[in-house]
Amino acid sequence: MAMDPSVAARQSEEAAEAFFRAAPPLRDRDRLAASLADFLARHSAGGGGVVCVTSGGTTVPLEQRCVRYIDNFSSGQRGAASTEYFLKAGYAVIFIHRRGSKQPYCRFLPEDSFLDLFELGEDSEIQVPQSHSSVVKAAISNYRKAIDECLLLKLPFTTIFEYLQLLQMVATSMNCLGHRGMFYLAAAVSDFYVPWESMAKHKIESAGGPLNMQLNQVPKMLFILRKNWAPAAFCVSFKLETDPNILLQKAEMALKKYGMNVVVANELANYKDVVVMVTSNGGRTTVSRTSKAEDLEVQLTDLLVKMHSEHIAQPNS
Amino acid sequence: MAMDPSVAARQSEEAAEAFFRAAPPLRDRDRLAASLADFLARHSAGGGGVVCVTSGGTTVPLEQRCVRYIDNFSSGQRGAASTEYFLKAGYAVIFIHRRGSKQPYCRFLPEDSFLDLFELGEDSEIQVPQSHSSVVKAAISNYRKAIDECLLLKLPFTTIFEYLQLLQMVATSMNCLGHRGMFYLAAAVSDFYVPWESMAKHKIESAGGPLNMQLNQVPKMLFILRKNWAPAAFCVSFKLETDPNILLQKAEMALKKYGMNVVVANELANYKDVVVMVTSNGGRTTVSRTSKAEDLEVQLTDLLVKMHSEHIAQPNS
């Protein structure tokens, strides 16, 4: 028998509260809150859109003094690329990202050594090989513009505790924007975690044979975001699966269960080439990239910007 | 009752063989082996030292199509810094590193955006702010020199399976160098793993309540490295603990158990400031950095280079 929705809702809220109560406090919270308030004050007066992009995977520490942790696969490519296209479309972007994940305008970098991009000229001036010169220069120029014009606010996280506290802070602050706010939740968020108080204090000993672990479920914060933190915002979440047979079904379930406006369904094997947008009006839109030279995120953000405009124009549709 | 050493040795070897048999094959093995053979051929003729530096943490996949994995904390700072100082001391370096970890000559980079280092001048030329200019130029120049003179070979890994297969390949190849080879094993290697064949094929479902996992111990490959892969080399391993009360004792145990020449003991809380070198002649040498401006690795590599010279000069001591 299905649970009474109001009971399920209260249980979700209680689980979320318990999670936040037990989480280690966010470092630098005051400084982050101040920079966020400043950023939103600049953009709340105008009529433009503000999008919160989350990107990269969260970690789950297994020890309080963390040596070992569980991590979720995500390069941050999608979030970084989408941030660039949202900026191009005139949005202000709050980029909540995993430390060390891909960054806007830096995606073209060689994986392990940015030094491979540079040479010294005869007079010791820094040069970029001709083949990369225009890309690197455009990146420097676009990045400078976004930072100097206060259109990009970068907030880093590593653990699931940091991520969810940042998301809560940003979402409750963005609530004042009403329908002009968008959430583009591309981060790969852990489903399981070890509660802080039940965590080993020191590094787990390796001499004692096999290791047994029990992990708890992370409360479903999308539901709380939609219901309490920023109810009027336009919400886009992502569903990643490795098994295509269950993907769309799980995306539709997430759409209903958490009240998203759009769920973007993607498969690990081809997430750069094709996604399906499942929307709250029952629609399914397949977005594929037309050539390897173009990012899928060009079309994806374009469609979302249009849907968000409609959401702003017809708040009750 | 302690186990008969020869029985323990055979068990270790069998565990190692079983690990390699079941591991997913290393991608690009032939290309990597060829570049390694080429690198060693250049350096086997001369009389100089060759060091294999391992750096960064290994991951343990929890699913075959990997979305989730267990990771070990390690920025790769120690390995990257030490590589620079070994190169400066005239060594050829094989740098086995975690993808995305700190790289030699790039350690000074801002964490999330290398673009913060650059500006465009009036004629669109790339500029570095005066404050960073000399550091960036020295980095580009040193890196170019190491690559162009074939003194640095970079081999990347992500998983424990890749790491141990690379280490085996490098160690057995370096065996031809005899006492001129050094291993500087700074990577943070997982103690536990999920055997490939018992791993979930798809992403683990999150709807089924708490998650229970059982992880097996990773075979102690240091023992095999010393005994079979490269018995004449000079071997330095690292022991990281969060609890200072057990650190030195565990370092001494590792020294004896695996036949290392040196174990460098470090504590998570202050590993950048102080380490203790535990040596096979019973010595303990504390290495502390004298100022925040100097890397601890300057002294550490300097001491090791001297000890390695003695090892080369007096192979039976």
Protein topology:
The structure is a homodimer of 317-residue chains.
Chain A: H1 5-22, H2 29-44, E1 50-55, E2 59-61, E3 68-72, H3 77-88, E4 92-98, E5 119-120, E6 126-127, H4 130-148, E7 152-157, H5 160-174, E8 181-185, E9 192-193, E10 211-217, H6 221-229, E11 234-241, H7 244-258, E12 262-267, E13 274-279, E14 284-288, H8 296-313
Q: What is CATH's topology name of chain A?
A: Rossmann fold
How large a portion of the residues of chain A is in β-strands, by DSSP E? 15-25%
- Low-confidence residue ranges of chain A: none
Oligomer description: homodimer
End-to-end distance of chain A: 31 Å
Task: Report on this structure.
- The structure is a homodimer of 317-residue chains.
- The first copy, chain A, is an alpha/beta fold and 317 residues long.
- Chain A has one domain (7-105, 150-313): CoaB-like (Rossmann fold, 3-Layer(aba) Sandwich).
- Chain A has helices spanning 5-22, 29-44, 77-88, 130-148, 160-174, 221-229, 244-258, 296-313, and strands at 50-55, 59-61, 68-72, 92-98, 119-120, 126-127, 152-157, 181-185, 192-193, 211-217, 234-241, 262-267, 274-279, 284-288.
- In chain A, the strands form 4 sheets. Chain A has an 8-stranded mixed sheet, with helices on both faces.
- In chain A, helix 3 (77-88) packs across helix 8 and helix 5 (160-174) packs parallel to helix 6.
- The longest helix of chain A has 19 residues, at 130-148.
- Chain A is globular, with a radius of gyration of 21 Å.
- The model of chain A has no long low-confidence stretch (mean pLDDT 89).
- At the A-B interface, strand 3, strand 5, strand 6, helix 4 and strand 10 of A face strand 3, strand 5, strand 6, helix 4 and strand 10 of B.
- Strand 10 (211-217) of chain A pairs antiparallel with strand 10 (211-217) of chain B.
